[in-house]
Write a structure and sequence with these properties.
By secondary structure, the protein is an alpha+beta fold. The chain has a single domain, classed as outer membrane lipoprotein receptor (LolB), chain A (Clam), CATH 2.50.20. The chain contains 6 helices and 10 strands, in the order αβααββββαααβββββ.
């Protein structure tokens, strides 16, 4: 399989499943994240973003390894459920019901899907670590299932020098690994990839096109990586999945 074939597989991922249920695990290296972010802040691109004050760049991550785990139920961009395990115990639940808001609804723009969220457990949101802001933004947890959507990961990888490794297995799925090396310096942070990484790695489901792993690498190790721990496709979802106010079993 050529690199272009893998990128095309990613572009058509949402067409290749009716539903997806997955468990995601994120691992970050706070020391490497700080080094890469400070390198970006000192670059020409960083000065356009931060101005001439790189010392004022915010670093919410600890100077150590950290991470989070969540479960996803997804039909499409309008109907999904996320359950994020909170560090202090409990669960953050965010649901997009798939029901479209009518005109005159004050809670959100008309034409968008109705959403609700809640927390279980005794910890307050104010007590959450600062780095937990990322998984509470569903951009950071939903992009594996539509890699060419908002994140445009196919386009970012397409700008690199890519090699393809076939015949691998990830989360009990046949997969293809793309390794990408930048051919020039990024002019912007290519989120969810990290600007300034030495190389990038994407493990793509060979049948469905969803991402099973996405990592930015620096100085011989991962800056961070989002990995699918478990995934199931085309299971029937009943209404309880998008209505339950308690963590699902």
């Amino acid at each position: 399989m050529r690199a272009d074939d893998v990128l095309q597989l990613m572009r058509t991922a949402p067409q290749r499943y009716e539903t997806v249920r997955a468990t995601l695990v994120y691992r970050g290296d706070g020391t490497k994240i700080r080094a890469v972010r400070e390198r970006y802040a000192r670059s020409e691109a960083g000065r356009h973003t931060f101005g001439d004050s790189p010392d004022e760049v915010w670093h919410p991550e600890p100077d150590s390894e950290f991470g989070w785990r969540c479960r996803i139920w997804r039909v499409d961009e309008n109907q999904w459920r996320q359950e994020l395990e909170l560090p202090g115990g409990g669960t953050s639940i965010v649901v997009s019901t798939g029901r479209i808001r009518p005109f005159g609804t004050p809670e959100g723009p008309p034409g968008s899907s109705e959403m609700w969220e809640l927390r279980t457990g005794e910890g307050s949101q104010e007590a959450d670590p600062a780095w937990l802001i990322h998984p509470t933004d569903v951009f950071w947890t939903m992009y594996p299932f539509d890699p060419a959507g908002t994140a445009s990961i196919d386009a970012e990888l397409g700008r690199m020098e890519l090699t393809v490794e076939e015949g691998i297995s990830w989360a009990e799925r046949d997969a293809v690994r793309l390794r990408g090396v930048p051919v020039g310096e990024w002019e912007y942070p290519p989120e969810p990839l990290w600007w300034g990484a030495d190389e990038y790695e994407a493990v793509v489901d060979a049948e469905r096109g969803v991402l099973l792993r996405l990592a930015s690498r620096f100085d011989g190790g991962d800056i961070d990586a989002l990995e699918v721990e478990e995934v199931r496709f085309d299971e029937p979802f009943d209404e309880e999945i998008f209505a339950s106010r308690a963590p699902l079993p």
